[in-house]
Amino acid sequence: MERSKVQSMSAGAKDLFLEYCSNSSVHGVRYFGCRERSICEKFWWVVVFVLSVGSCAMLILKTYQKWEQTPVIVSFNEKSTPVWQIPFPAVTICPQTKVKSGMMNFSKDYNDFTSMDSEEMDGFNKTDYLLTMMQLCERTFYAIVLYDSEALPNKTSNQSYASIVQEMSLPMYNMIEFCVMRSVVKFCRDIFSYTMTEEGVCASFNLLSASELLRTNSIQTVDKYLSGKHEAPQWSLEHGYSQEATLNSYPYRTLGPGYSAGLSLLLLSSNEDLDYLCRGPVQAFKVLLHTSAEYPQVSRKFVHVPMDQEVTIAVKPQMVTTTESLRSYTPERRQCFFNNERYLQFFKIYTQDNCELECLTNYTLQRCGCVKFSMMYSNGTAVCETNQIHCMLMAENDLLEMDVVNHQDQQTNFRAECNCLPACTSIQYDAEITQTDFDWLKWTQAIKIPLDNMTGLHVARLGIYFKEAQFMTSKRSELYGLTDFLANCGGLLGLCMGVSLLSLVELCYFCTVRPFSLWRKQRHEEMDAKKLKFDDVPGISLLSMSVKGD
């Protein structure tokens, strides 16, 4: 009984397969069940069909890999962007002169300090100033002069390094004069603010305030990083200026290209304040151009403005935006973060540079057990002493080398764990620099600019402006979406096997609906046969008739 049932099911499956082959729209399948074809012909068509299916599967796999790995393309936007739609670059200026000579002569005091014995060092009243100044020196000083920083003592007072730097630094009005923005003379102290950087106290223009850039509730409260009070409620990095923004909205923007539409100012330094031991042979100003939402890191990239020179910087913006259709992708697939996707401990606004600065801070803390005075840190975090300078430098170098070194030895990559992808909306300011001699003495006399104590004074002029009225914006957009993937799969299936969507529905039909229909039909036939057999029994028929008669 069971054997006959198996044979019946096998015969039914064979009939179903032959029916599918004779009615299928898939190319080549009809030859499988054709009774007029020989076994050799059927085998040949089976081989061809298998090769077609294998080729189609391989091509679809490559299409899927392309869809999975490279779904995003960066291309130029359809329209150029006028410069008034983006902020004028934030400008951070750091003087090479870190302290007035009347307060400390670093070269003399350092030589005196290194020649002292331990008892004389204890009585030296400029130890803290000297140790603080060493943290502001160029790297050549650490490599050539201060090769053994561990021999230095700790700071003697409870005063923080940051507060000593602020106490030592030159007043802003002593180094910046005659600021002109959009052909309008401005008070420099009104448009510039103090910023604490790894280069000491610098002057920043067009930078967001601490309340909008930093998470002030997570950062130590003893020393301020930013003194600016300008707020920018009508601008954000991702969405730009709002419709309510005016021409005077912060951050400042310019209306067009050219020197007269940009920013110009004078930079002053005194010959008696120059120090070549700490700051090296190039006595100048370091200038950094960055976005208003980016905390300045001057030592990484800067423009030198030498003394008695005029430097003009023609700015060419490079902006990258991301379409909203990519929000559904993971950051790893689109290779960027929207601001609400990546939380930074110390910054409210995500940029790649802000993330890398925070990453360097965390790694320095892990490696040295402390952070540099200019880094963001929470209350209770230890600040590195000057005798830990080499540890801080090694932490920075190790972090930069991790992408290469750890790729080979497969060790833990702290830099990779930071995951500092670019921001989905980013602005960079490329610079074309022109430099020439500046006869500032004759110029100031001609236009009657009053400058006090002109003996031993050095003056440089800096001009920053947009080179062109418009620029081309790059845009991240979807290169290969789900629709494109399905369209390619359909094209490959049609090319290799002549398969369409209805062909797949047809296959599902013959695998599900058709067998069930045949089973029901067979069952009804069996029930009808049993009923007919039941009616053919004479005694049962008479009994049923008598029952009906009663």
Could you provide a short overview of the structure?
Helix 12 (352-368) crosses helix 13. The protein has helices at residues 2-23, 39-69, 106-114, 118-122, 127-134, 139-145, 161-168, 188-191, 210-213, 276-279, 331-334, 352-368, 389-409, 414-418, 440-447, 482-497, 501-535, 538-549; strands spanning 72-76, 81-82, 90-95, 176-181, 184-186, 192-197, 200-205, 235-236, 240-241, 263-270, 284-290, 303-306, 309-322, 426-437, 457-466, 470-471, 474-478.
Descriptive key words:
550 residues; alpha+beta; eight-stranded mixed beta sheet; 18 helices; 17 strands; 40% helix; disordered C terminus
Describe the protein in words.
With 550 residues, the chain is of the alpha+beta class. 40% of the residues lie in helices and 18% in strands. It is built from 18 helices and 17 strands. The protein has helices spanning 2-23, 39-69, 106-114, 118-122, 127-134, 139-145, 161-168, 188-191, 210-213, 276-279, 331-334, 352-368, 389-409, 414-418, 440-447, 482-497, 501-535, 538-549; strands at residues 72-76, 81-82, 90-95, 176-181, 184-186, 192-197, 200-205, 235-236, 240-241, 263-270, 284-290, 303-306, 309-322, 426-437, 457-466, 470-471, 474-478. The strands form four sheets. Strands 1, 4, 5, 10, 13, 14, 15 and 17 form an eight-stranded mixed β-sheet that branches. It has a five-stranded antiparallel β-sheet with strand order 6-7-3-11-12. Strands 2-16 form a two-stranded antiparallel ribbon. Strand 8 (235-236) and strand 9 (240-241) form a beta hairpin. Helix 2 (39-69) runs antiparallel to helix 16 and helix 5 (127-134) crosses helix 7 (161-168). The protein is elongated. The chain starts with a helix and ends with a helix. Mean pLDDT is 84; it is low at 542-550.
